[in-house]
Design brief:
This protein starts with a helix and ends in a 17-residue tail after the last strand. By secondary structure, it is of the alpha+beta class. Helix 8 crosses helix 10. About 50% of the residues lie in helices and about 10% in strands. A 6-stranded mixed beta sheet has the order 9-10-11-17-14-12. The radius of gyration is 28 Å and the shape is globular. It contains 28 helices and 21 strands.
């Protein structure tokens, strides 16, 4: 391993899933110092107090080191170490990304969709790293702490690491004040034992702020978009918010101020800012302000959606298994049976309102798989109350008293009954011999730490995945529209589905990449063109600068992360429905990190993304295999309802023309209820 990798491992905080906070410029400098230290040990450079000298420009073959070596070799003048620390620090993001990627590839670190990092379970259990270049090693943090606190004789490389960590304040940040006081004298001593490290460490300590050339603040005002600009936009009038933000970013730049309806929001909208936000957003914004009132209407104080920092990371780890793709694979037979029940309920020749039908079907499946209950008779009330609550508390488009109408009170009462039903069905005796579900994991967390997850917050945690299922139902509606309006792709999905179901229902083990390739890429393209949640709203808690603009604390930030889906730099003909853009060799979604982001970016990225993609694919394939569908009305053109989420309008329906292959329907709780 290289010093940059070891420094990141030293600074990893297992409680928060991220790194111990070091001032950003100091962190950049210490990563640069780590690269220079490695180059010195590779005999490519030499340093003293006043100069850094090139000895050998031959590449090392290491992608972490060679870009810096090449930069030094091109310089015709000799400079002090501090000059090179500040110059290489500009490339710190690239160094950081490469180091984390390497640690992940060799099995030392694991990352989830939200950008949280953990030591891999194998390293955490054994305290040793896996084979790297034929060698294993003891976990570095334990080794360094023993050196500092137990007076163990250090390895020369560990001395260098201690010096680098000390130069940026990392050791002080890691230790409790009492521990640091005990170790301070030894830290100072060890930091002076390596001459090269001492020179580089001194350069890091003396560089206390970025050079003037890096601190660019534009003197012109941030572009402002008002109500007039919105009304003049065809895409806004068509209610296509992702495209609207993409067009405004192309016209005004990726940062602009949106002022309309008495609200003032700073919008960031580009793949580059998506990537920045995924890496650094957690340091500057919080999520709780915009979801707190919504949660309170359900009787809960906080949820995973409103948590930030260490609490959010802890909650994500607890619900990871219950939201994984494995749940769908393991219970695929149940999902298919429920889908066929809804197919039977739709009948032949009936006009079916697409979004409501999909929300009921997907919602029932999610409820079964997440909470092991099929509360179909309550799902409609849940949808009604959820939508009204979002409009009243998050979007503020209807007055709060609209949540207190008799109809809304009845709906909320039924949801509270559902809380109790789920709770009562998850006693140890009733769960014996059954596959663990999300509620089992939540109950374990509640019993082990009732202060972290109290009873008052359990109920909303139970139904949160069912609410997410409503969003997935809207995505399924978009998928049906695109399938019926793209006949060539429809034929490919039908052929793939018929092959998958040729010998009966598949199992989870049958769902390899090749078996569902066309349908999976179809789902990806649907998510690109029709993201149900196109942006995040956040409160800026620590001011920052992006693209030369200062974003002040307490401002409202709209992260329009799906605007990049319509950026021609990454997606050729972005308005065209083209599933082959995701296949090799094009792989357009992989051209730039976070350019394709249908499930959000940053710490609150959807933890059930892989579940969602598979559930959508399996429902669509089963539908293509069994049913011949047509649009209703036949000349329907897609209309979008943007609130409280992106969805097809109420005019969109379909008819089942015939059953291509017969099926046995499982009784669904929706039998006997109206289709519309």
């Amino acid at each position: 391993m290289r010093f940059a990798e070891e420094l990141l491992l030293m600074l990893l905080d297992e409680k928060t899933g991220y790194f111990i906070p070091i001032p950003e410029w100091k962190m950049s400098c210490v990563l640069a110092g780590g690269v220079l230290m490695d180059l010195a040990l590779e005999n490519r450079i030499d340093t003293d107090v006043g100069t850094l000298t090139l000895i050998d420009s031959t590449p090392t073959g290491d992608e972490l080191l060679d870009p810096t070596l090449e930069e030094i070799a091109k310089e015709t003048e000799t400079h002090a170490p501090q000059f090179w620390i500040e110059r290489i620090a500009r490339n710190a993001d690239a160094i950081n990304t490469k180091a984390l990627d390497r640690l992940s590839k060799v099995g030392i670190l694991d990352a989830d969709e939200g950008g949280f990092w953990n030591l891999s379970s194998k390293v955490a259990r054994s305290g040793r790293y896996p084979l790297v270049d034929g060698r294993t090693g003891e976990e570095i943090k334990s080794r360094i702490m023993r050196t500092l606190l137990d007076d163990e004789i250090p390895d020369p490389r560990d001395i260098a690491i201690i010096g680098l960590m000390h130069s940026c304040g990392g050791i002080r940040a890691m230790l409790e004040p009492e521990e640091y006081e005990l170790a301070e004298e030894r830290i100072e001593l060890l930091s002076k034992m390596d001459l090269i490290g001492q020179n580089i460490g001194a350069a890091i300590q003396s560089s206390y702020r970025p050079p003037e050339s890096m601190r660019t603040v534009r003197h012109r005002a941030m572009p402002v978009i008002g109500l007039k600009d919105m009304l003049l936009s065809k895409t806004f009038r068509a209610r296509d918010l992702p495209r609207f933000f993409a067009e405004q970013a192309q016209k005004h730049g990726p940062v602009f101020d949106l002022k309309a309806g008495g609200r003032d929001m700073i919008v960031i909208a580009s793949a580059e800012l998506n990537h920045w936000f995924s890496q650094k957003g957690r340091l500057h914004v919080r999520s709780q302000d915009f979801i707190a009132d919504f949660q309170h209407t359900w009787g809960t104080g906080r949820s995973i959606a409103s948590m930030d920092g260490a609490d959010h990371f802890r909650m994500r780890k607890m619900v990871r298994a219950g939201n994984s793709r494995a749940v769908v694979e393991d219970r695929l037979d149940e999902l298919l049976a429920m889908a066929r029940g809804h197919f039977d309920w739709w009948g032949i020749g009936n006009a079916v309102r697409t979004e409501m039908a999909c929300q009921r079907m997907i919602g029932e499946q999610v409820a079964n798989l997440s909470v092991s209950i099929a509360p179909a008779d309550i799902l409609d009330d849940l949808i009604k109350y959820e939508y009204r609550a979002l409009l009243a508390t998050v979007h503020k488009l209807v007055p709060r008293f609209m949540l207190r109408t008799p109809a809304m009170k009845r709906a909320l009462g039924r949801v509270l009954d559902l809380y109790a039903q789920i709770h009562a069905s998850h006693t140890p005796a009733q769960r014996t011999g059954k596959r663990r579900d999300l509620v089992d994991d939540l109950m374990d967390l509640h019993y082990s730490d009732p202060q972290f997850l109290p009873e008052t917050d359990l109920g909303f945690a139970f139904i949160a995945p069912i609410i997410a299922g409503h969003y997935l139902g809207s995505e399924m509606s978009f998928a049906i529209y695109e399938m019926l309006t793209n006949p060539d792709v429809h034929k490919r999905i039908v052929a793939e589905a018929d092959a998958l179901f040729a010998d009966g229902d598949p199992t989870g083990g049958d769902l390899d990449v090749s078996a569902i390739d066309v349908t999976h890429r179809f789902i990806m393209e649907t998510l690109r063109l029709h993201p149900v949640i196109p942006m995040h709203l956040r409160t800026v808690m620590n001011g920052f600068e992006v693209e030369g603009y200062k974003i002040p604390p307490n401002s409202t930030l709209m992260v329009a992360f799906t605007a990049s889906h319509f950026d021609e730099r990454f997606f050729k003909d972005p308005l065209k429905f083209d599933i082959d853009r995701f296949a090799p060799p094009r792989g357009e979604h992989k051209q730039y990190p976070n350019a394709y982001a249908p499930f959000g970016i940053g710490t609150h990225t959807c933890g059930g993304a892989r579940w969602s993609e598979l559930q959508l694919a399996m429902n669509l394939m089963l539908m293509a295999h069994h049913l011949e569908l047509e649009l209703h009305p036949r000349n329907y053109k897609l209309g979008i309802n943007p609130l409280p989420k992106m969805s097809p309008d109420r005019k969109f329906g379909f008819r089942v023309v015939r059953h291509r292959y017969p099926f046995e329907a499982t009784e669904t709780a929706y039998h006997g209820r109206k289709l519309n």
